[in-house]
Amino acid sequence: MPELTRTEAIDLVGRYEAGQEIPERMRADVRMLGALLGRVLRESGSPGLYEDVERLRAATIQAYTDETPEAFERAARIADSFTVERADEVARAFTVYFHLANLVEEHQRVRILRERDGRPEKEDATDSVAAAFVRLAAEVGDDTALERLQAMRFHPVFTAHPTEARRSAISRSIRRLATLLDEHDAMIRNGADERRAERRMIEEIDTLWRTAPLRPEKPSPTDEVRSVMEVFDETLYTSVPHVYRRVDDALQGPAAGSRAPVVRPFVRIGSWVGGDRDGNPFVTASVTRKAAKIASQHILLGLERTTNRIGRTLTLDAATTPPSAALLGLLDRLVSEDEEAAAEIAKRSPNEPHRRTLLLLARRISATSRRDARLAYTDPDQFLADLRIVQDSLVQAPAPRQAFGHLQQLIWQVETFGFHLTELEVRQHSAVHARALAELDGGGPRSEMTEEVLAVIRSVAAIQRRLGPRAAGRYIVSFTRSAQDLANVHRLAEYAAEAGGSRPVLDVIPLFETFADLQAAPGILAEIVEHPEFRDRLKQTGRRLEVMLGYSDSSKDVGPVAATLALYEAQARIAAWADDNDIELTLFHGRGGALGRGGGPANTAILGQPPHSVDGRFKLTEQGEVIFARYGEPAIAMRHIDQVAAAVLLASAPSIEQRNRAAAERFADVAATMDVASRERFFSLVKAPGFAPWFAQVTPMEEIGLLALGSRPARRGLSVESLEDLRAIPWVFAWTQARINLAGWFGLGSALEAVGDLDLLRSAYEDWPLFRTLIDNVAMSLAKADSRIARRYLDLGDRDDLAGLVMGELELTRSWVVQVAGGRELLQNRPVLQRAVKLRSPYVDALSLLQLRALRALREAAASGTPADPEQQRLLLLSVSGVAAGLQNTG
Q1: 3-class DSSP state for residue 338?
Q2: Euclidean distance between CA atoms 263 and 469, whole angstroms
Q3: CA atoms within 13 A on the CB side of 610
Q4: Residue 488 lies in a domain
């Protein structure tokens, strides 16, 4: 098949993109940024680069649309024909295109959110907390609904798992482009000259093109802490109180802002960054203390600036807004403690006591950050008490709008973030604790590992002394397999305090990860709550207990279908046990970004949970690319928090609980059949002799370890003869890069065929939320897979039996999912997502073809015993980064 002429290529690309039904404003943005990128490639790329990019683009679009072997072979030949230097440039060009396309999609989402803002008729009960409250109140009454709203908790926990393939420099460049795109929109609305914005955009795109896409070295744990702080500074600090404000506005109507809010802060931010040492030797006790210090510095600086800003605007004269006696008493105390500054402030605000008070409070926050004992607060409760004196004085004045306006948002920020910002959590493997205790009990010399375990516990105590118990104290035991694994942490705390130090307040949390551990969980919990340390802690907390469930390892253990069913069953049994024992349970969901690790839309997953397993409390891990996708842009962050919190509130509605209970009972036989069939199919693959080295051969698993994604090693000490110690992230990441996405779907086709009754399965899809979520998530995973490219990867290994098993299950699963969901193709019932996948797929194919040629060269070199070509390694890593950007998920 001959190559297309330039005119034919332009016509094909135009017809393809026009056929995707893109909204006009979004289409204009894609066209504009694409044209600017084309200019950059012509100006800054090597001669002929732009033309080669266009050749490959047209070829992959043609191969995607007509699906003939000849069209696909022609696209592959073009990718193979480039020199390695040109292939490098082409891979970078497509990667930049994906960054721009992702930005345009995000920009369009923000546009839609802004247009919808304040229009409740556009929302259903799962779209916002306010809408969910109305539905819940209709079922349980206003008073009960308000109690549940005020007791609700949404607790995202940011982790440093290495799944963000972009460099921070790339992310910052994209954020600058987002600002320029906003400015461009404003110029269009105001009839201003757009050329200035376009000139600045092309400058930024040129910078993006010239910026090295790969990190030169792995980030340190401290680098990871600072990276997460960017999200806080740019988004969360202001977005979270805005969510509270929007809910209160909706519930109180015109009276909102002039009387006390009915909303109480329901977001808590957790972090494993700098605390998660499971398999990461670079996270030390020193790093943990440093992580807490960095987070505290960020929140204290934010609170100081906010208090100052509000203070400067609170120019209320005492004649119009008389201060209360309590406020005058507070002001006198502040003046006596900080006389020189107070005198200077009084000159500028001679008869403005509320303003003077807030400006002096800002100085106390600054002193807290500097650790100036003379003025510093000892804890955030002291600061809150002072703010409430100011607020009460304004209410009495009466100046209620000043009391419940910006000052209320500051109070919400302190209640949400304290002086610590993130609640830092420690995670360590149970086997490490057991080895440390064996040494300590033996009385012999202590290894470096054991000393570090004790130092970590001491660091938690030091953080609590500095920032309060909320700042740290959750201690997660990964691979919990017995009650003794949990009790060991308290024994270690005794050893850590031997030298006269204080013991920290510890909430020891089990993490149940494998299939067997999930089944054993209720028995382990029943035993551990009788342990003296646990019994005492339950009394102190009002019988609150947290339990973590691991999605990643359970999926790698028994396959995605059986893991999904096992996790549901484990939650149901744990929730029933907690209910019987009068325990306020919080289930902590260790979800990853990818579908093979429990990813997917969180709000739909919440609404499909077993009765009483949520009860107004939801905690989950957020990691890598998910952190920036969900929390990197203020409007999207607010929307995400609002939607997830709405689902948390609504999950305990009697109608939702009854629906889930009835569906679980009605389709129990379907679940049992699917469980057995999916596991058998999964085991036939992963337990086949030689599977592990074959997996390493046909995917870029080994090469992914060369990417400087995160500080944590990709393995727990794996040889390619065993998958047991392979972390779930490279397991998922490697299958994603091979365009197979096996970790998200393998075994489902066999499971559905074992049930065999299409009418029954369609009924389950309609009436069983857990099943519908599973089918929809698998449809998304399959839509991002590509059979022709997958076949090329599998051909890299000399195992036709395993390759045939994978491809057979892929086609079987695709067929059943389409039939069960209805329609003629994947994602037909989710047109926006389907459009996004289709728009990207041909361009991802281009990068996959470049990756394949590099991987093939590396495998051939390894087979002949020659050293790997560094240029081919670089090309492969560039393509990995680009495919991750195109698919918008990694591990």
Answers
A1: coil
A2: 24
A3: 19
A4: no
Q: How far apart are the first and last CA of the chain?
A: 37
CA separation, residue 848 to residues 76, 78, 87, 882 (Å): 10, 13, 12, 9
> What is the rounded CA–CA span in Å between residue 778 and residue 769?
14
CA atoms within 13 A on the CB side of 650: 27
Q: How many Å apart are CA 72 and CA 845, to the nearest integer?
A: 10
- Number of independent structural domains in the chain: 3
Q: Which of 99, 107, 155, 161 is catalytic?
A: 161
pLDDT, tens digit, for every residue of 368-399? 999 998 999 999 999 999 999 999 999 999 99
pTM for the full predicted model: 0.91
Domain that holds residue 869: 664-887
- End position of a domain, from candidates 193, 214, 235: 214
CA distance 361 to 308: 8
Which pair of structure tokens corresponds to residue 617? 């409390």
Query: How confident is the model over 776-789, as a mean pLDDT?
Result: 93
CA angle 419, 420, 421 (to 5 degrees): 105
User: Is residue 181 domain-resident?
Assistant: yes
Do the beta carbons of residue 796 and residue 728 sit within 8 Å?
no
Active-site residue identified among 298, 420, 490, 556: 556
Question: Which of 214, 248, 275 is the last residue in one of the domains?
Answer: 214
| Residue 729: closest CA among 426, 425, 280, 221 | 280
In angstroms, what CA-CA distances link 809 with 365, 559, 762, 805, 870? 60, 13, 20, 6, 36
DSSP-derived 3-state class of residue 75: helix
Domain membership of residue 420 (yes or no) is: no
Q: How far is CA 232 from the centre of its chain?
A: 14
In one-letter notation, the amino acid at residue 756 is G
Q: What does the longest C-alpha to C-alpha distance in the chain come to?
A: 90
Q: What is the phi/psi pair of residue 624, to 5°?
A: 50, -130
The span from the CA of 561 to the CA of 630, in Å, is 26
Place of tokens 């009460």: 392
What are 84's two structure tokens?
Answer: 């390695």
For residue range 116-169, list pLDDT tens digits in order.
765 554 556 678 999 999 999 999 999 999 999 999 999 999 987 544 556 778
What DSSP designation does 254 have?
G
Q: Which of 316, 318, 295, 298 is nearest to 306 (CA)?
A: 298
Residue 161 is among the residues annotated as catalytic for this protein: yes
Domain-located, residue 186: yes
As a whole number of angstroms, the distance between CA 54 and CA 10 comes to: 9
Joined together, the tokens standing for residue 201 give: 């955009």
Active site residue 640: no
In this structure, the answer to whether residues 674 and 786 fall within a common structural domain is: yes
Beta carbons of 881 and 214 less than 8 angstroms apart: yes
